[in-house]
Specification:
Number of strands: 9
Order of helices and strands: HHEEHHHHHHHHHHHHEEEEHHHEEEH
Strand order of the largest sheet: 1-2-6-3
Helix content: 40-55%
GO molecular function, one term: monooxygenase activity
Largest sheet: 4 strands, mixed
Shape: globular
Subcellular location: Membrane
Keywords: Heme, Iron, Membrane, Metal-binding, Monooxygenase, Oxidoreductase, Transmembrane, Transmembrane helix
Strand content: 5-15%
CATH class: Mainly Alpha
InterPro entries: Cyt_P450, Cyt_P450_CS, Cyt_P450_E_grp-I, Cyt_P450_sf, Cytochrome_P450_fung
Family: Belongs to the cytochrome P450 family.
């Protein structure tokens, strides 16, 4: 008898499978490489963005992949991303949830928020301190951290990579949260190790990693609680400077305690290390392109002179220096891939997109689209000096996302990076290091894997451009 039952169940399951396959085949899908039976398409791990970019040569800027029954829609051009993510922002706003992020409790907060009401509150809260008027008040704070960075380079240039982390990290905690608590800084660094790991997008983890994730959950909760209570305590003592948390606490009807805690907890991790990546990339790029370095230094010398450090207000008068930074953002985007999942089934350009499709936005490929950027793999700052260039090709616009999930920290990041890059160029020469035999050693130009990428570790020589540099930096340190 049980054999008959099993036979019936098998027939029913086979029928359901056939119906599902037939239903899918009856709907047009975006083109893509033919999948293998059962397992689907195989994409080798490591630097996924580069491998996905290759498929566009055959299947166009918008194509599909299938892996173990799951569909993936890849967007390799900014035009296709704008049409889908900007044009249908009400559908394509949710981020997929990496399993390890969920286990670690970091799904609480604006980065992975799936509740539309809480997301709206979080983004409104970020605007309390990231609006254009507010950013005007942060320039002195930014200059203070950049000057300290220059001082650190003078004292120990070999530690430039660690010094670079102090600039955006300190600004994020003090300017955005008005917090300099050592305990909070330690917690943030621990959790950033998790967030930056290439492991976070895996589906299956060894038991020990899952156990570790639960300890991360406790630390993340502790970080959120610590920042919240620290601010409350400073308010009671009357020593609190205006910050995102303090401003939100003044409006309890607009922001829930949950949103205040976990939005602030992710402010640091949301942008600090992307800025560090760009600073380190700047150092390696100047080693590899000394002619670019000299031209930018000549521009700064002519416009700013040698008696003071450059400021963000000099940006409009330093077009080539700004072009150098823009080209670094284009060619070496710190976050090469972002992702979305649709809130509902959709039809786009006549093709079906189910709500369980993973939308992969390949920013790296967009920044190297040869139809937009001639000779896309070459480092050419001069491409940004043309006054009639299309603003849609601006890397600052593309690199900070699309639709409802555009990163609100763009203007702050631009201020930090321009001020840092201009001040380094004004005060230091960056050149290749040498090994113990006197041989020149240059950066490999290769990058790590992960959610945020960094240049592989490298060494370089960083020397003051003149004896006067030490005095200028000392005067600036005393001024702040």
């Amino acid at each position: 008898m049980w054999i008959e039952y099993l036979s019936v169940i098998f027939v029913v399951l086979l029928g359901l499978l056939y119906w599902n396959v037939a239903r899918r085949r009856s709907r047009p899908y975006f083109p893509g490489p033919p999948p293998l039976p059962i397992i689907g398409n195989i994409v080798p791990p490591g630097h996924l963005w580069k491998k996905l970019a290759i498929f566009s040569q055959q299947y166009g800027p918008m194509f599909s992949l299938r892996t173990f029954g799951k569909f993936m829609l890849v967007l390799n051009s900014a035009a296709t991303a704008r049409a889908l993510l900007d044009g249908k922002s009400a559908i394509y706003w949710t981020r997929p949830m990496p399993k390890l992020i969920e286990l670690a409790g970091m799904d609480r907060g604006v980065l992975f928020e799936s509740d539309p009401n809480r997301l709206r509150q979080s983004r409104k809260m970020l605007n309390l301190i990231l609006g254009p008027r507010q950013l005007e008040t942060y320039r002195i704070m930014i200059e203070k951290y950049v000057v300290q960075f220059l001082h650190n380079l003078l004292e120990s240039p070999e530690g430039f990579a660690e010094h670079a982390r102090s600039v955006p990290g300190g600004i994020a905690l003090e300017t955005l949260l008005s917090i300099t608590s050592p305990k909070l800084i330690d917690l943030v660094r621990t959790l950033l190790t998790l967030y930056l790991s290439s492991q976070i997008f895996r589906l299956f983890f060894p038991a020990w990693i899952q156990r570790e994730a639960f300890s991360w959950r406790d630390q993340y909760t502790d970080m959120a609680e610590h920042g919240y209570k620290f601010t409350q305590g400073e308010i009671v003592k009357g020593t609190m400077r205006p910050s995102m948390i303090s401003k939100a606490l003044e409006r309890p009807d607009e922001y829930s305690e949950y949103v205040i805690k976990y939005t602030s907890a992710q402010v640091y991790s949301g942008g600090a290390d992307t800025t560090v990546s760009s600073i380190l990339t700047f150092f390696s790029t100047m080693v590899l392109h000394p002619d670019v370095q000299r031209r930018a230094q000549a521009e700064i010398d002519q416009v700013v002179g040698s008696d003071r450090l450059p400021r963000y207000s000099d940006q409009s008068n330093l077009p080539y220096t700004n072009a150098v930074l823009t080209e670094i953002i284009r060619l070496f985007i710190p976050i090469p891939i972002i992702a979305r999942v649709p809130a509902q089934d959709d039809v786009h350009n006549g093709c079906y997109i189910s709500k369980d499709t993973l939308i992969v936005i390949n920013l790296w490929a967009m920044m190297r689209d040869e139809t937009v950027y001639p000779d896309p793999d070459a480092f050419k700052p001069e491409r940004w000096l043309s006054k009639d260039r299309d603003n849609k090709s601006d890397p600052w616009s593309i690199g900070f996302g699309f639709g409802r999930r555009i990163c609100p920290g763009r203007d702050l990041a631009e201020q930090i990076l321009f001020t840092t890059v201009a001040c380094i160029l004004a005060t230091f020469d960056i050149s290749p290091a040498t090994d113990e035999n006197g041989n020149v050693v240059t950066p490999s130009g290769e990058f790590t894997d992960g959610a945020i990428i960094f240049p592989l570790p490298f060494k370089c020589n960083i020397r003051p451009r003149s004896p006067r540099v030490r005095d200028i930096i000392a005067e600036a340190v005393n001024a702040y």
